[in-house]
Amino acid sequence: MPMPSEPIITIDGLIKTFKNHVHALNGVNLTIHKGEVVSIIGPSGSGKSTLLRCMNLMEVPTSGTVYFEGQPLSIEDKNLNQLREKMGMVFQSFNLFPHLSVLENVTLALKLVKKIENSHAVEIAKKKLLDVGLGDKIESYPNQLSGGQKQRVAIARALAMEPDVMLFDEPTSALDPEMVGEVLAVMRTLANQGMTMVIVTHEMQFAKEVSDRVVFMAEGKIVEINDPNVIFSQPKEERTKQFLKRINIL
Amino acid sequence: MIVLLNFSFLDNPYSISLLLQGLGMTLMLAFLAVCLGSILALVPALMRLSPIKALSIPATAYVEIIRGTPMLVQVLLIYQLLNIPLFLIGGIDMGSFIPGLVALVINSSAYVSEIIRGGILAVDRGQTEAARSLGLTQRQTMQHIILPQAIKNIFPALGNEFVTIIKETSIFMYLGVAELMYQVGILKASSPAVTELYITAGILYLILTYPLSKLMNFIERRLRHADAK
Description:
The complex is a heterodimer of chains A (about 250) and B (about 230). Chain A is an alpha/beta fold and about 250 residues long. Chain A has helices at about 50-55, 80-85, 100-110, 120-130, 145-160, 175-190, 205-210, 230, 240-245; strands at about 5-15, 25-35, 35-40, 65-70, 70, 85-90, 165-170, 195-200, 215-220, 220-225. In chain A, α4 (about 120-130) crosses α5 (about 145-160) and α5 packs parallel to α6 (about 175-190). Chain A is globular, with a radius of gyration of 18 Å. The mean pLDDT of chain A is about 95. By secondary structure, chain B is mainly alpha-helical. In chain B, α3 packs across α4. The model of chain B has no long low-confidence stretch (mean pLDDT about 90). The interface between A and B is medium-sized, with 27 and 21 residues.
């Protein structure tokens, strides 16, 4: 697959140490290119979620810099909110707003952040909810939905902002097995439409299928970045082999 | 010991009218104190939640001082400090009513600020993250995402605070504010039925607080139900 050249996210020398002295990231460098789908895999505690959460400064790195579309991100920067709205994020635990209807979940940021008037925001939201197969649920409240439906609303909510990149933080880990497929189907469609995506996941088959590149992390470091067909069959690093053997991929 | 209770003072319209006036004053004081106190409470609550120490430390000190000292001391101290001369509005002496209300509002604000802070902290962290990831500012997140959810945690506890404050208003008899216990004091001077008067006062407080507790439970259930509609 030809590699798109223009970088969208560049991570430079990222170190993250938590208050309890856990070293979550130990010097990570990574570039995500426009239109690319990158999956991050690795054992739990390897820092993959922390790395993803640093990309939109949900987690503030201890040192190092994240560049988004060429601009360094800073928590003190007044423009951070404008940059964040271009980076859609989907969480493991959905994080829908329980006091708002499905429709309001999607329109809220359109109105507050993009200052789009209500009728137009509703139009956009309906379209996005239709895209994820939830056109009939717009009046529902989050606690009336299944896990899979909640996650699809969360994806629609992020997509409504027309982001330049979508960050997925273990989007199917909290789902019952029978719900995983519907969420992955939405993500697969999105990948096929050319959306830039960074996915932290335990779904190896899915990662292999949709990714342009797969990043393997362990102990807060990137161990290996490779083509999905290569990494899942002939990983070059011993640490990668160990991990894939343990989860019965190799 | 056998005590024969004599509630004959209740036949006297004058006594009834005094007690009801006192009850009205008690209710008004408590209502004003909780409403104004709740608004004022937002300030220390949000200050304590701030990561900026210059904001959180004074707010913590305020809350700890108010909660750690007796209400009677606070009321008398504020009465002394304000030192408002006697003047009447609607037959109420503002010289004691205003300092009393100020003390009650300050006292209530400290307790309510802890209720608000707890209610805000109880909202899942993921809610803030989702809102911020969509580009909402911290202020918008607080206003549109956190506070509407925190209200459901805050409201029931606020009802308890209202009940507490209703009972605390009895302290105002020391200032000569004509609330329920003050009126009981007046009737006591002309009636031998002291025990009965205190029992009556207790029942009147209960008439205010018990339905209020029930009402708060009802509203709490409604709020929980609203999410599930």
